[in-house]
Amino acid sequence: MSGAVEAKLAELGMTLPEVVPPIAAYQPAVQSGVYVYTSGQLPMVEGKLPVTGKVGAEVTPEEAKELARTCALNALAAVKSIAGDLDRVKRVVKVVGFVASAPDFTGQPGVINGTSELLGEVLGDKGVHARSAVGVAVLPLDAPVEVEVQVELTEA
Which residues contact residue 67 at a Cβ distance below 8 angstroms, ignoring those fewer than 6 apart? Predict the structure, then answer.
């Protein structure tokens, strides 16, 4: 099933990927009431990380911002796996972004803008959210970026 949100993705030249399978003991997303919480989404493309390393060292901030867009697409796929249709997204409530950072890198907010901007492009006003952008020493699989998203759904 696809609707207006997936049509907007197509208009922007993007397609919703398959849900990234868990790399440990968790679910990609869970629902509690009208909320869907995604697990941390890595920027996996066809089952692998296109880039690894620390932002500000092996990975440029611009590359990391693009990776954060990929994380957002993976998060939307995880939300759809629960909601059935992305048109049920009433609003994105919260985004938490983690950036594996070189010791002197302080541009985490700019990196996570990749996620925020994509959600805005795809969902319009429904994509406006609260957010945290956190620098960390290392992420799973040496990913440069990881993003989790909380959304509110309309009733089915």
Answer: 43, 50, 51, 59, 114, 143, 144, 145
Half-sphere exposure of 60 (CA within 13 A, CB side): 3
pTM of the model: 0.96
* Closest to 89 measured CA to CA, from 64, 124, 59: 124
pLDDT of residue 156: 73
Q: For residues 83 and 56, what is the distance between their CA atoms, to the nearest angstrom?
A: 36
CB distance 43 to 49 below 8 Å: yes
| pLDDT single digits (tens) 100-143 | 999 999 999 999 999 999 999 999 999 999 999 999 999 999 99
Tokens 């060292």 found at: 57
